[in-house]
Specification:
CATH architecture: Up-down Bundle
Distance between the termini: 63 Å
Helix content: over 70%
Mean pLDDT: 94
Structural class: mainly alpha
CATH superfamily: Ribosomal protein S20
Radius of gyration: 18 Å
CATH class: Mainly Alpha
Oligomer: single chain
Strand content: under 5%
Number of strands: 0
Low-confidence stretches: none
Length: 92
């Protein structure tokens, strides 16, 4: 337990921030998993739709400071590459 008033406030603030960050990180992970599930099912239309939703969620998490902008860019890039593999298989 904290001994000072400011330390107690800091504990409350950090707990609030932890829950906020947890919400956004889990939301990002869920949207990424949905895209990967659509890719595994080889459903291009659903994968495209879920990719847009995932990119939006990742962008929001970046703006809110939950994840770093380079991390967000990397995740979006890798998801896009996975979705693009579906189109490569269709043409072959």
């Amino acid at each position: 337990m904290p001994n000072k008033k400011s330390a107690a406030k800091r504990m409350r603030t950090s707990e609030k921030n932890r829950l906020y960050n947890k919400y956004w990180t889990s939301r990002c992970k869920t949207s990424i998993k949905k895209v990967l599930d659509a890719v595994n099912e080889k459903d291009t239309v659903l994968a495209e739709k879920r990719l847009q939703e995932a990119q939006s969620t990742i962008d929001k998490a970046v703006v809110k400071g939950v994840i770093h902008r380079n991390t967000g860019a990397r995740r979006k890039s890798r998801l896009t590459l996975k979705v693009k593999t579906l189109y490569g298989e269709d043409k072959a």
